[in-house]
Structures
1.
Amino acid sequence: MYTKDGEDYFVVDAHTHFWDASPANWVAGQEQYAKGWIECFHAYQGLGPAETHWPIEKFQKYSEETMMRDLFEDGHVDIAIFQPTNLRQWYTEGFNTTETDAAMAERHPGKFIVNTTWDPREGDDGLKGLEERVKRFGCKGVKLYTAEWRGDSRGWSLKSPESARYLEKCQELGVKNVHVHKGPTIWPLDKDAFDVSDVDHAATNFPELNFIVEHVGLPRIEDFCFMATQEPNVYAGLAVVVGGLMHARPRFFAKVMGELLFWLGEDKLIFGADYAIWEPKWQVEGFVDWQMPDDEEFGDYAKLTVTAKQKILGLNAARLYDIEVPEKLAPKKAEETSPVGVAGS
Amino acid sequence: MTTVAARTVSEAVWAALGTVRDPELDEPLTDLGFVARCAVTGGDAGATDATDAAGAEVAVQLRLPTYFCAPNFAFLMVADAHDAVSAVPGVGRVVIELIDHFAADSINQGVAARAGFVGTFGDEAADELDDLRADFLRKAVLAGTDRVCRAVLAAGADPATLGRLTLGDAPASADRERLRDRRRELGLPSTDDAPLVLDPATGNGVEDPAVRRHLGLARLTRVSQEANSGVCRGMLLARYPGTQAIGQVGHTGESGEEQRP
């Protein structure tokens, strides 16, 4: 729990990774991609404060002790949610798998929630594997990469009948939180990594599931916001938004936050530090201290209340994941706030 | 590109690169720091009378903020740069080379052979890029509408009248001309008597009560575009620390003029 100026903030970091991108884990013949991938991530770290930058060797592979300290001792995080990224085509043991995450979570009870992943192109075998992982690791969420290449396929859509089978399976298993990577491009060719129309479709057809759009569809937040106003079960995952903009581009950070609050409202925004790209400490402290600037340029946007910050930093994610929060922070009924920019208003 | 005679071929090449935009960010490559190197050699590159120059050789290197930047956008920029530089009088052979990118070889060879995106990537590319370009031009129109309408309001216009104003009613400015250019590129009404606020998908004017919501979307689109540009500039700087975006080219190579975002 982070406390500042007499206010408590229960912090759920909804987007964290424990990866191994060291050269020893690179697949032979795929070295350029394995190297390019982690160097790309490392460049993103450059958008955080200089004193939080790591040398590339540490960034490629960090220890469990380092992560525990950065999140829970120094970083004010109460609960962290692992989002896996397999990438087995480039990394021999995978980049950041459900299995690795779960093993670490097991060593630190009560600290982590383990999400898994699926890919509709894996058919029946994939469905079976999903069910096994969910039962074994107690997963309540998945992280999906619709733009991921596989053989001749350059990606897939949540609109497809194959995807619907997996979404039905999620519903059946109680995996109610679907995190979808819609943001900075990684593999896509002409396939749009940030096209959110398939989330729109799935969110309508699966109203019992929550869809958290990671990285808010950057660089096309306008498409995301416009879609999200029409779907009550769509949320904004703030990974990259806080880490990538708050320090490096504070004025744009203010505007993006202003727009997200305007179109989606404070109940739909979910904080995630995206460790180890960025450490949570400066993000949590900075966000609590942050306020919409007074300049006329930001006159269209509302100020952020302590309540809103508490929700964004942890209470919203706690609601989606049924995480018990300290009693004094537990939301009272009917406290949800409607955004200004909802359709029709 | 109308005053070539008054400058050297090198300057004209740089100016030509300045007409090439990142379609997503709607800003010139030269402003974004994407031009890593621009060398003009041979021929009569330093001549001010370009018509007498005997085919200067131009070698341009382009760089992007990440190794995995979307190849479709990268392809557009390399191809556009090739076309723009090749059109400069006095220029002979042109080599545009994308560097430090996972698809660099395919893109460079494809553009040099004028193979088009589908020709370059075969089955991996579903379609040519015209739709993508148009899609981002529409976004540029929306973002530009926010800039111009803000200036109109700052000049004292009543917000309730925006739906009845024309492009010519907006104060003359670079933003207004940029908006006009983007509308023209899309084939939308762009003369002074055209509606100030129009739907970029249909070209029809937007009138009350839809104007308020339309302007909300325009503002959002501008914020998205500018925030994206901010991230790209920051990533480029992190990727090439200490390197300098070149602001002007000398006869055979780079002269430094640091561009920080």
Note: The CA atoms of residues 65 and 232 of chain B lie 6 Å apart.
2.
Amino acid sequence: MDFQSCVNIKKEWDIVGARQLGRDISRKIGFGTVDQARIATTISELARNIYLYAGTGKVCFEALEDMNKKGIRIVATDDGPGIQDISQVMEDGFTTSGGLGAGLPGVKRLMDSFDIVSTEEEGTEISVVKWLR
Amino acid sequence: MSTLKLDLENYKELLQEYIKTKDEQALYQAEQFSKHSMQQNISPEEIINVHIQSLQEIYPDMPEYIQSSMNFLLETMISYGLAYQEFQTLREKQLELKSEISVAANMQKTLLSTVKPDLSDIDVGALSVPAKQMNGDYHHFVEDGKGNLGIAVADVIGKGVPAALCMSMIKYSMDSFSGIRTDPSVILGNLNRVVERNVDASMFITMFYGLYNSNDHTFTYSSAGHEPGFYYYKDRDEFEEIDVPGLVLGVSPEVSYKQYEKRVEKGDMIILLTDGVTECRQGDRFIDQEEILHVIKQYSHLPAQGIVDQVYKHFERLQDFQLRDDFTLIILRRNV
Amino acid sequence: MNLSIDVTNNEGVSNVVLTGEVDAFTAPKLKDTLLPLTKEQGHVVEVDFQDVNYMDSTGLGVFISALKSTKEHGATMRLVHMQDRVYRLFKITGLTEIMNIESTVQGGM
């Protein structure tokens, strides 16, 4: 397995590619059906955010192996306009998709750890980790 | 995780029993299972997963296409699960807000509390009921110990928290004026300046201010765009609208309010209200003045407080016990 | 309850035709449409109330802030074809004295 694999997000179709790669990697790590579906949903959200708000960016995957646990790290990076008010987008009920998308709070719920760094006019990097149980 | 595993066994048995017997009992237990799962914050995709695993165990030779179709279903459930969790969090937040508001409402009650005066010459009835938790109506009684009773009735545009905040400001300003001059026109003029300087352009307040002098039984009053009250003449058994011109508070910086005076005879009544009383709607129909006066007349044998309470009960019922606006009604009647 | 707002602009005059009810739900929309029109020096805003049969105090608030804005920016506002029930609200609150209002029934209530 590659140490890190990335998918560039330029068009909506790339979201599917990112999901596919992410699912393959998580299956290899040993994640079950439910967690695979959750990881795929997370990837969708992150990739769609890039596609909708930044235009282009990439989603990268990294298999993690600690002393006694395995997991996956997903990092979504773009050089879009950045997020002005992070606390606001992390607030439930704020999702601009009209409550239909999981939004970033949904991503946070699906994953074990969540980190976001955003600079206005420079871009956003969201990094999430899911551990295998 | 252990509880979920425990439930897997349980679920498998239930499913197996249902497939065999098509029994209502098993379905009832399935209902219990789903309620229990919700309490444990188990999302729908996990239940589907339990279903898939149970199927695999019951039918080891399950066709591959069924397995795939179940995985497909599981995938479609993920967003529902997230929406459900979000709903739970929002509900908790809402409860939190609700309790904060009820604390604020209690504070407001204490802050705006006014003591209904107990005077031998005049019988006073007063009631103010908010449509929501916080009251945007305000009424206040001030006695000066020399036989004068000041009565303020005000209504802030809108309802709820913003209206209540605004009302608190009025209350503080009124307190700071007390003891200076009690002419209604002067009080309204001063308040107007405070409101004009301190509130948003689209916010305004209506207020009626009256001063009852129990020494010579005169009632002096001014109005800042407030819903007209009524005067009841005992001798003629007639109502008359107390229609006084005056601009609402907060629109223009300098407004001078006109002041009027009336001699009050024995048995006469002064009825002050907010538009929550005249804007009562019954379905699409507005309740007109005639009806309010009719109800007041019907109960006029009662003490002032009794009349006020009965009028409220009447309109509460007309509105199916759901007030659409804050309701305030004050009745003063000269006894002796 | 709904409110539809139709604006036609013509040589320094904006005609705003309202249809429906102006209440706490529709007032924000009205405010968003009306206020920008009042911020132009010399501009005339005419609001037609022909088909407004109900307005509450929130709606009144919108017209008060519009009035303040016209004064601040040197524009003018006229309210025309106002029905009795709505006119009564402007009359009680003393706004008929400071606003340019033409009711369907002269003298109002």
Note: Helices of chain C lie at 27-37, 57-73, 84-92.
